[in-house]
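User: I'm putting together notes for a lab meeting next week and I want to include a structural view of one of the chains we've been expressing. I don't have a solved structure, so I'd like a prediction I can at least talk through. The sequence is below, exactly as it appears in our construct file.
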Amino acid sequence: MNPDLISCHWPDSLWRATAIPLAPLPALTGSAETRVGIVGAGYTGLSTALHLAERGVESVVIDRNQPGWGCSGRNGGQVNPCWKVLPDDMGRHYGADAMAGVIRIANATCDLVFELVDRYDIDCQAIRPGYILAVIGEPGQSYIGHWISQWQVAGSLVETLDRERMARMLGTDHYDCGMLDRRGGSVQPLSYARGLAGACLGMGVTIHGDSAALGVERRGVGWRIRTSGGAVDCESVVFATNGYSDRLWPGLRENIVPVASLISATEPLPPDVTDRITPGRNAVSDNAGLPVYYRIDEAGRMVFGGRGTLFGRTGSVNTGAVRRAALRLYPVLGDFRWEYDWGGYVAMTTHHRPLLLELDEGVYAGLGYNGRGVAMATMMGRLLAERIAEGRTGLPAERSRPIPLHAFHPVGIAGRMVGGRLKDLVTPRIRG
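Assistant: Thanks for the context. Below is the predicted structure for the 432-residue chain, given as structure tokens.
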């Protein structure tokens, strides 16, 4: 495991510099008894605890560091709808009876985020101007058509954008066409995580920071989660560690591939620049061979992200490739300083679906959001709470299926990145 997966060091990110405060939560000392023990205080774990509390179910959350330390406090803050995989490509994983419910869940992920922000008055710079998927070439144009039809999106919420409209909305003529989904938006991601933690505390949830889980073992009819300072005895366990999963539960981390995502943020840009670059403040990503994502934040900074190093590790957080991609789209950014660089791990699955895993009796995990984590991790928390409290959920639970030859995943990441670069070079533009 890479050292930055286990270090307590907070990244020197824009989000940490501007997030709402949350007092450090104390480490677990002694023994705690509860209905559900949750490992991980990111979006998945906090949403699970909050939705359990709304159902009158007690839980205790523990985290190696503090709420939002992992990718929940490091991502680009984009609240993007649905999943990247098309329903036609995942039909074999869910039966016909389950597919309609899965589509409803995926379509509701953004709504849930903004409902929680409103319900618990979370101060996280939440805006909802819509999400834009930008594409190049006929393959991208075809993907947009399939995406809209297969996800059964209401026509009033989503629309295709031609080249001229894309140029007006994004301030660049780089793309051939795109899609605007008005359900999407953005948040200050660390503030959102801390706001969820505050909502949990207000509902009586116990959260312990600086409390790494060292072991999980059977205890009678329930489970015990051991830490260096104590233990949590519980009926059910939820692993909410996503891209930062370790060897705590055998085979869990082999269900996903952690891929580094790096982000740079500029100094605040003047209004005459931001009025030309995404003037509507949309969250944007593209489907290039090496995708990028970006938006203008509340202070007028360009926040621009993309894949990390060749073998998928954050390394020294070298964002040179990310900045070069930003300058290709927006040469004007060369006139301004880049103030922040940071990175985190996105959890990818080989089939591009998120996973609700049932690891043993009463033991669950939610992970593998494939770059849709703000919205889908929040939804996964609700699904896990439903599963535990009510014994049912619209997303079928699956068994752990470790990826074959998982130890070689850095080689696969390198191949994917090289292939992506070649795709970007050879994809023909749409003419006319």
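A couple of points you could mention at the meeting. Residues 73 and 190 are 4 Å apart (CA to CA). The first strand starts at residue 30 and ends at 39.

User: Perfect, that's what I needed.
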